Amino acid sequence: MRDPYDVLGVSKKASEAEIKKAFRALAKKHHPDTHGNDPKAVKKFQEISGAYDILSDKEKRAQYDRGEIDEAGQPRGFHPGAQGAGGWENFRTRPGQGGKGFEFNWGNTGNEPNESGFNAEDIFADILGGFGGGKRSRQPRKGADIQRATTVSFQESVQGGTRRVILSDGREVEVKIPAGVKEGQQIRLRGQGSGGERGGPPGDALITISIAPHPYLTRDGRDLKMDLPITLKEAVLGGKVNVPTLTGPVTLTIPPHSNTGRVLRLKGKGVPATGNEPGGDLYVRLVVALPEGTDPKLDAFAKSWDTSYDPRSKLV
């Protein structure tokens, strides 16, 4: 059996708070429930628990420091296994209990504060609470979160809105969709999850957002993009055309000799500004579109058009 100070990794001058902190860290790290009840983990945990049993009790610690008791908490010359022995002998397992198969009777009662002011049962139960030993824990516990998904329109994702969502327990909640919400973003509804345990707060509802596609708009960060068909005449001579946006039609001036692929910007027609996020713009890409079917006048014009330009000259 090793020196309890060495087991907990503290000095002989360590304060009560330092001893408690060291014990909690080691107990969480080496608890058998996290190691598949490995016999080595059980032995290690016994050692940690026995060391803390001595050092957390002022009287036992003083007796150990004076050499009156040994590392197992027994009087010098006392043989382990005798009735009433403290320290490691108080730790035992209950087979077949899964994560609740470990038990530790601290001192004689297992739930009375020692002279250092620590209630060992409370400390041990708090550690077990993280490993499925909730039977002993008296700490309030937050309820579980509820995960749901909903699909919003492209316009809602840009401009914001509200949507009703039915949770897995049948409750219907109203979800506020913030302007500029992104694909896959989660909206947290605090307190709308499952109820807490032992007076703990309820969990949250986490709503994952999917965005339906738009027939002609796409999104790039805070900006929107679209292809705008124009006539051959508008491409050559320029002109003014109406552009549909999410806030209504806007007049766009097309410069003369605008070819397919030219991009024009409509400032402020993207995702609106929210909080620290600036507003975006709408980028319009011009696409020269010929009429569907035949157009005799256009055919006659093309035949009479005497031009020498070669649009494929750069491919040579």
Q: Key features?
A:
4-stranded mixed sheet, alpha+beta, 8 helices, 316 residues
Describe the structure.
The chain is an alpha+beta fold. Helix content is 24%, strand content 22%. It contains eight helices and 13 strands. It has helices spanning 4-8, 16-30, 39-55, 58-65, 120-128, 154-159, 232-237, 296-304, and strands at residues 91-93, 102-104, 146-152, 161-166, 172-177, 186-189, 205-211, 218-220, 223-230, 239-243, 250-254, 263-266, 282-288. The strands form five sheets. A four-stranded mixed sheet has the order 8-9-13-12. A three-stranded mixed sheet has the order 3-7-6. Strand 1 and strand 2 (102-104) form a beta hairpin. Helix 2 packs antiparallel against helix 3 (39-55). The model is unreliable at 80-121 and 132-136 (pLDDT under 50).
* Low-confidence parts: 80-121, 132-136
Query: Radius of gyration in whole Å, from Cα?
Result: 37 Å
Shape: elongated
Kindly, what is the distance between the CA atoms of the first and last residues, rounded to a whole number of angstroms?
Answer: 87 Å
Q: Please summarize the sheet with the most strands.
A: 4 strands, mixed
Report strand order across the widest sheet: 8-9-13-12
**How many helical stretches?**
8
Mean pLDDT: 82
Strands, count: 13
Strand content: 15-25%
Order of helices and strands: HHHHEEHEHEEEEEEHEEEEH
Given the helix and strand composition, which structural class is it? Answer: alpha+beta
Helix content: 10-25%
Write the layout of secondary structure elements.
Elements: H1 4-8, H2 16-30, H3 39-55, H4 58-65, E1 91-93, E2 102-104, H5 120-128, E3 146-152, H6 154-159, E4 161-166, E5 172-177, E6 186-189, E7 205-211, E8 218-220, E9 223-230, H7 232-237, E10 239-243, E11 250-254, E12 263-266, E13 282-288, H8 296-304
Parallel strand pairs: 3-7, 9-13
Antiparallel strand pairs: 1-2, 4-5, 6-7, 8-9, 10-11, 12-13
